[in-house]
């Protein structure tokens, strides 16, 4: 308020147009001293509404929770970005971004993003890479004699659609062929009912089904790709190359806000889940999410992110070596007929540009 009064005192010596400009700047709060530089602010606003479509409704999952929190905590407002998070489901959500109906989204893994590009002739580009391991695992019922992936031969594995990419790689790295075990297609998503069918192994998400089983008192053991150092990923945020070309500064500012939100969500998990449930409840909770389950989901995923984050590197910056190894492994197991041009599908420079060393630059300079 003091600055506003000071500017008004110049009316006796400055032309009226200059005075009005000063008043407008003081009221808008868009000066470099108050936040993002006014020119950058104006450019972000001029880009119009920006839509982020999720890969699994409003789940408290890496790559989704950061967009929800960034919006709820006002980070996009501070950067003058008109941002909206919309619920979606992979891979249809990726198609919406490829088609231009949304501008940003998240993918369950880099392999999933690359496959969506190959299948849909898209130009999706990974911007942030949170999880540096597989989020999938295999649950084994109590009493199972299976102790590693190589012993799956001769077993019956229940699948929902297909065996997740990270588990296909785990099987191959264990020296066995996927055809040596039987796969049966399961209905629904209840792991308790699935195990009651008498199957020998059940692919799961570490941040979901194990909690359901434990809460119900169902004992189990688990095969984890992390134990084999399987190259995999989860929590990938992306946009399109066209968006990067047209609005490079805005893309950098979206990345900036997502990183800040990821830090907030890790430090304030209950508040982050509350932010998610504001959207979940407003939409009528069609997926029947429960707060305790979403707290568990975010606890597991944020824990994996923190445990495997490399020291001395800005959080979320894509690891090109790891992502390349993931695609190489998926090519070897036959997910891709030939090695795709994965390098064009990831941009590590944008995330690196919003850091000063390992400190996030906030707001944009």
Q: What is the mean predicted local confidence, pLDDT?
A: 91
| Adjacency order of strands in the biggest sheet | 2-1-3-10-4
Which regions are unreliable across 5 or more consecutive residues at pLDDT < 50?
A: 1-33
Overall radius of gyration: 23 Å
The SSE order reads HHHEHHEHEHEEEHEHEHEEHHHHHHEE
Biggest sheet features: 5 strands, mixed
Question: What structural class is derived from the secondary structure elements?
Answer: alpha/beta
Question: For the terminal residues, how far apart are their CA atoms?
Answer: 24 Å
Would you count the extended β strands for me?
A: 12
Q: Helical percent range?
A: 40-55%
Portion in beta strands: 5-15%
Report the principal-axis shape. globular
Helical segment tally? Answer: 16
Task: Give the helix/strand layout.
Layout: H1 2-8, H2 16-28, H3 38-46, E1 50-53, H4 65-72, H5 75-78, E2 83-86, H6 92-98, E3 104-107, H7 110-120, E4 124-131, E5 136-141, E6 156-159, H8 165-173, E7 182-185, H9 191-196, E8 202-205, H10 209-215, E9 220-223, E10 234-240, H11 241-246, H12 248-267, H13 269-282, H14 291-308, H15 320-332, H16 348-353, E11 355-356, E12 359-360
Parallel strand pairs: 1-2, 1-3, 6-7
Antiparallel strand pairs: 3-10, 4-10, 5-8, 5-9, 11-12
